[in-house]
Amino acid sequence: MGIQFSDSVRRCCVGMIFLVFITTGCQSDVEALDVINISNTPGRSEFPAIAADSRGYFYVVWEERAPNGILDIYISERPLGGDWTDPEYILEPLTPQRQPEVVVDNENTLHVVGQYSNPQGGGEVLYTRKPLNGDWTIPEIIRMYGAAARPDLAVDNGGNIHIVWVELVGPWPVFYAKKAHNGSWSTPVQISTDDAFPWSSPEIVVDLQGYAHVVWTASTQEPSSLNWMTYTTNAQGDTWSSPTVVALDSALGIGSPTIAVDNERTIHVAWSQNRNISYTFKFTDTQWNAPTSVCSNSTVSEWPCLVTDNAGVLHLVWSEVISELYYATKDTGSDWSEPDVYQVTLYSMKMALSTNTLGIVFSTHSETDTLLENYEIFFVEVPKK
Ligand SMILES: [Ca+2]
Ligand SMILES: [Ca+2]
User: Fold this and answer.
1) What are the average pLDDT values for consecutive 10-residue runs of the chain, which has 385 residues?
2) What is the C-alpha to C-alpha distance for residues 75 and 45, in angstroms, rounded to an integer?
3) Euclidean distance between CA atoms 349 and 356, whole angstroms
4) Which bound ligand lies closest to the C-alpha atom of 373?
5) Residue 343's CB: how many other CB atoms inside 10 A?
6) How far apart are alpha carbons 165 and 323 in whole angstroms?
7) Tens digit of each residue's pLDDT (9 = 90 or more) over 36-81
8) Which of 13, 198, 265, 382 is an S-S bond match for 358, by CB 3.0 to 4.6 Å?
9) Cβ-Cβ contacts under 8 Å for 366 (sequence gap 6 or more)
10) Ligand 2 center to 22 CA (angstroms)
11) Is 60 within the bounds of a domain?
12) What is the CATH number of the domain that holds 310?
C-alpha cells in the first residue's frame, strides 16, 4: 500500500509540475509597477479614458460623482517627466455628465465627448474641445432619441471628429456622426441593424484617409446563447457597409472589443473569449482572417486594449487573473511576442501610447476605503517595447 501511495503522490506531483509548466506557458519574469492615484478625491471616480499628445503629455478624463451627488467630467494631465495636475472639472454647470472619452489631434487640441442628461432627463452626446494653451469650447450637444449612452470618438489627420454612440431605445441602435474641422456636425446615421442588439459600447478608429472603422459585440434580442463581434466601416465612399461578423461564440463568450488601424489601412481587432485574448485582422478589401489566440493559457485573460504605432507595430495589453498586466507586441508579418508581465491589480482599463511608454488607467477603490465607496483613478506606465 505504502509503495502504491508513494507512486500516486509522485504521479500527482509530476502532474502538478506539468500543470504549472502549462499555465505559465506565456509568462516571463514578473516586474512590479508604481501605481499612481491621480484622482484622490472624496467622490466616486470611474470610467477613466486616456490620451497622449505629441509632446509626451498624458491626459486622463473620468466621471466624478462628488459627495453632493453632482456628476461631472474631470481631467488631469501630466507633462513629460512631470507630475499629475490636480483634478479639475471641464464644464459646469452643464451636469450631469458621464462616460467621457478623450483624443488628441495632430495640433495637440484635446477633444472630449461624454453623455449629458438634459433637464428633462434625456441622454445626449456632449462634445467640447480645448486647443493647446486655450480654453474649453462651449459644449455642443448631439441629440437623437434622448437616450444616448457610451459615446466614443476618434480624430483623423484632417482634424475631423468622428463619434459613435448607442441610443437605449428599441433595438439599441448605434449611431455615427462627423464634425468637419472647424465645421458643423453631420446628421447622425444609424450604422447597426435591428437584429444585432449591442452588448458593448461601440469602439471607433479612423484611418489615414479619414474613414471610420467601428466594432461592438452583439447578440439577438431573443434569449440566445449566441453572441458575436460586429464590424462596419464607411471606407467604401462614405456609405456604411452592412455590419459583418468578425467572430462568433455559442456561450455569450465574446467581450471587450478593441480596434486599431495601421497606416497601411489594415484593421486589427482583439477581444476576450474563452478565458483568452483573441485577435484577427483584415485588409481594406478582404474578409476577416480566422481569429487566433494571442496567448493560450488556462488562466482568465480579459480587458484587452490594442493600439498601433506609426511603424505599424501593434501594442496589446490585457489583465491576467486581475493581478497581472500582460503586454505583447506584433510586427507586420510576425507572431505576437512573448508578453512582458507586470504585477498590478487592475480591472477594465484604457491605454494610450506615448513616445516611449504606454500609459494605462483603471478605476477601483483605494486601499484605505473599507466601505468600497470612494473609487479612484489609477495610472501605471510601462516601457514601450
Ligand atoms: Ca475618488
Ligand atoms: Ca487565458
Assistant:
1) 38 40 60 94 95 97 92 96 95 85 98 93 94 94 95 97 96 95 94 86 96 94 88 89 93 94 96 96 94 92 96 96 95 94 93 96 82 88 96
2) 11
3) 19
4) 1
5) 11
6) 31
7) 999 999 999 999 999 999 999 999 999 999 988 899 999 999 999 9
8) 382
9) 37, 374, 375, 376
10) 11
11) yes
12) 2.120.10.10
Q: Report the side by side order of strands in the sheet with 30-32.
A: 30-32, 340-343, 324-330, 314-320, 301-308
Q: Which three cell numbers stand for residue 89?
A: 472639472
Can you tell me the distance from the alpha carbon of 297 to that of 20, in angstroms, rounded to the nearest whole number? 11
Distance 332 CA to ligand 1 centre (A): 41
Whether residue 20 lies inside any domain: the answer is no
Task: Please tell me whether the peptide bond between 96 and the residue prior to it is cis, using omega within 30 degrees of 0.
Answer: yes
Q: Contact, 360 vs 351, CB < 8 A?
A: yes
Please give the tally of structural domains in the chain: 1
CA of 86 to the centre of ligand 1 (A): 12
Whole-structure pTM value = 0.91
Q: Which residues form the domain of 112?
A: 32-383
Residue in the block written with cell 466614443: 152
Ligand 1 centroid, distance to 33 Cα (angstroms): 21
